[in-house]
Design goal:
Two copies of one chain form a homodimer.
Chain A: E1 10-14, H1 19-31, E2 37-40, H2 49-54, H3 59-64, E3 66-68, H4 71-74, E4 80-84, E5 95-96, H5 98-110, E6 115-119, H6 128-131, E7 136-138, H7 151-166, H8 184-201, H9 207-223, H10 228-246
Chain lengths: 249, 249
């Protein structure tokens, strides 16, 4: 059976140290639907039981992870490689925000290319020799006074941007799914109900302010984003309080 | 010295359990320049040495963290509150992507408002009673097969979007210039006023539905874009109708 075309980038962990961090990175990838992990010379060998313990629920990624001796081998088949690094490194490379990086990778993958993202070892970060293999750098806009993202966090943010770049339904705007909004007639009826009862109750006082008060009240109802159910609640409260009045408290 | 205007949202951890997670959340906040942490009833008390050990480098946030008994107190002064939650909860609330959420909060803060973001306890997530206090929900677009973000990861992604929303100044059209919006404490007071009177009037009936009805009503008030003047109108109507009742119609 032929290999299906790469529909996502490989995430390459270069010389990761603690197994726990590899497991946490696997979880972070799978949180955003990514499952192609590659490892370059993991310090404590492979497989690593501590990675498995931490990965719970995303252990499949570890089983399927490919292990390489060098970064060059790990990215050998890729058409486009980006390196995550917090610090500028004195190498001339295009610098991408995570968002721009994943948009670029998504576009290239749609064009049939293969892509990989490099993540450095926990403390040291990527060596210049690894960064030199990349077409560009991903720089996360962290607080310059505290740029201490760990490996799994860096994977998480990159995976999040991958998902944003590729999910068909990106809710950029506010939605309120399944909500039945009240229509204008229903809002009008509600407004009249309150106006009538408030008139009876003597709310619109003094007389010379009554018209302005009524207009403001109508305006208030019409400005509110009321659902059908909200409208029923407001009717219900008013009816109940009138019943309370009628039975003398 | 007068308090400087809020230039960032407060991040409110509701009933956090392990100290390590509070420390990790502090680090995640400070990675993106956020330093206003609030805690609601931390399980293991406060201060917590495990939180301090984990927060290394961001310990200042823990020293400055404000601790509250209830979520309502923690968000009392906020004009706009969003709740992070993975699951739809059967409450009618606007749903924001992290990006849309932080853009909205950034815009409101530029307009002089105060904002807060709620994060639930590690396992259980936020209770509906907490979510009812929020104006909307933040939903992270995770893999539906593996939606297992932990507390610090959720804080990290939200903080990241805050940084993205604020690192470039995007102009926003000011709507309803000069409007004084009601703050959360004023909305709460209004909500309580209606709840108390409606209780007296026998609105919350039958008994087994009373709690749901109350929660829905609180949720209704918190969803409405009420001005100070609107709040006064609603108080005024209710007071007047009670007077009407008291004088026997």
């Amino acid at each position: 059976m032929p290999t299906p075309p790469a529909s996502q980038p490989a995430f390459v962990l270069v010389e990761p140290q603690m197994g726990e961090n590899i497991g946490a990175a696997a979880r972070a990838m799978w949180n955003f639907g990514l499952d192609r992990m590659r490892l370059v010379a993991p310090r404590d060998g492979w497989p690593n039981p501590k990675a498995v313990a931490m990965a719970s629920g995303a252990g499949r990624l570890l089983d399927a992870a490919q292990v390489f001796e060098t970064t060059a081998e790990a990215v050998g088949e890729a058409d486009f490689v980006l390196a995550t690094t917090a610090r500028p490194r004195g190498l001339t490379k295009p610098v991408y925000s995570p968002e721009a990086a994943m948009a670029e990778i998504a576009a290239r993958i749609r064009d049939g290319q293969k892509a990989a993202v490099l993540f450095g070892p926990e403390r040291a970060g990527l060596e210049n020799s690894d960064i030199a293999l990349a077409n560009g750098i991903i720089s996360v806009p962290v607080n310059p006074d505290f740029p201490s993202l760990n490996l799994a966090q860096c994977v998480l943010l990159t995976g999040y941007e991958w998902r944003r770049a590729t999910s068909e339904v990106t809710p950029r705007t506010v939605e309120m799914a399944g909500t039945e909004w009240a229509n204008q007639a229903e809002i009008d009826a509600l407004s009249r109900h309150y106006e009538e009862r408030m008139e009876e109750a003597g709310f619109f006082f003094p007389d010379h302010k009554a018209e302005t008060m009524k207009r403001n009240l109508r305006n208030l109802w019409s400005r509110m984003p009321l659902t059908r159910s909200d409208v029923q609640t407001f009717h219900g409260m008013l009816r109940q309080i009138v019943r309370w009045k009628d039975r003398g408290g």
